[in-house]
Amino acid sequence: FFNLDGEGNLDLYIGNDNGNILYYENDGTGTYIFQENLQGGGSDISFGYSVSPVFADIDNDDDLDLFIGNNDGNINYYINDGTGVFSSGTLLEADGSSVDVGDNATPAFADIDDDGDLDLFIGNNDGNINYYINDGTGVFSSQGLLQANGTDISVGNLSDPTFADLDGDGDLDLFVGNASGFIFYYKNLSLISNAGEDAEVVCSLLYSLHANQPDAGKTGTWTIQSGGTGSFDDINAYNATFTADTESTYVLRWSVSDGSNTVSDDVQITFVADDVNPTITCVGNQTVDADSNHIYTVSGTEFDPTETSDNCNVASVVNDFNNSSTLADAVLPEGTTTVQWTVTDDAGNTQVCSFDILVNAFVGVEDIDKNTVSIFPNPVNDNLTINLGNFSDNEKIKIRINDILGKTVFEKDAANNPEIIDLSSLKKGVYLINIISESEIKTVKFFKK
User: Fold this and answer.
1) Is 288's pLDDT higher than 80?
2) pLDDT given at position 367
């Protein structure tokens, strides 16, 4: 399967017993439609015997060329012009002459030495793997037979190699099929260090690293190369969690050692400060009616924000009326009260919204005690004037103010009528003022702004 037409999906190429290569195009859904026999130099590629095509970009020109091993032990090479049109076949060379591995050449390409270009591996009738190194321009030189455990690899008859990172350790392992239907697995024990992909982190000073896991008998170690101070939860774990002390760009190094040699690779992790304000949406302006106590008690979350959000995390939502995260059960006085809500995220960024609540005055017959004693203004900011009404001039009158919980916050003997008292030190809220005589107690509720 290869993407030769540049459409972003894998098309299918099949070699057959006649030596042709059949081309099936992927329609993008995984359905394959036969197009034609693959051509080289304007005519069908044909060898007269079974072939297995291999595609590889050996010359680093960003297109896939075609390679076909033949029964004579050679490799036929077809150059891609960049559009999926191939030249006439020529024999691939190494060390200045045509590659020849005996009989039944089966090529495979892999960057086994991790130098950025594809090297060539060819199985043959004897069951060996011939190894050719690429100089980076598509010119090959023979390295002899590939070895495992110090001896030449031999799997019997008709070796057919392929490479894949089966164990996920960052290097390519070798798999070789043979004429008997067996597959031989050769683990790559090269010393490899891959620190993972660079990353940018927002909303956190933690990052889970993703380096390659060293093979048995090898150890890995994380170190900080630059960026500031920080810590690893386990400096020897390939998947360690790194904690940065500040927003910065850190360069972290993953070093793998076998006791004699060490290889290293760096990864750059940028921790970005969160400078995005959260969002908050208030209800619109509200109008409600006071009850017979000249107040309005908020029901549930009716005046709470309708929505809050943040690109990271909302830390708090609070209003300036009762310094709480909800207005539920808050007591509002008659008149207009402006409420401001503030949302804050984990980074300290804030956003506000506000709205007005108009509490219409209660209209009805009041208790007689409230008619005989009057106060103004209500709500009050600083000075409250108390008209003692028809209390007898000879009576001793005490003025006592309690908060909504019954705690006494102010008390004095009345000396004048009207009496003016300074309430500037009281906190915002609802209070009860009690006019206490020798014969009765009269109570009026008021609101302190």
Assistant:
1) yes
2) 39
Would 199-271 and 370-448 be classified into the same CATH topology? yes
pLDDT of residue 221: 97
Model pLDDT, residue 395? 72
Q: Which fold has domain 370-448?
A: Immunoglobulin-like (2.60.40)
Paired with 345 in beta bridges are 314
Superfamily covering domain 199-271: Immunoglobulins (2.60.40.10)
pLDDT on residue 372: 64
Q: Does 407 or 206 have the greater pLDDT score? A: 206
Give residue limits of the domains in the chain: 12-186, 199-271, 279-360, 370-448
- Residue of 305 and 171 predicted with greater confidence: 305
Of 116, 125, 117, nearest to 70 by C-alpha is 125
Q: What is the pLDDT of residues 262-278, one digit of tens each?
A: 999 999 999 999 999 99
279-360: CATH topology is Immunoglobulin-like (2.60.40)
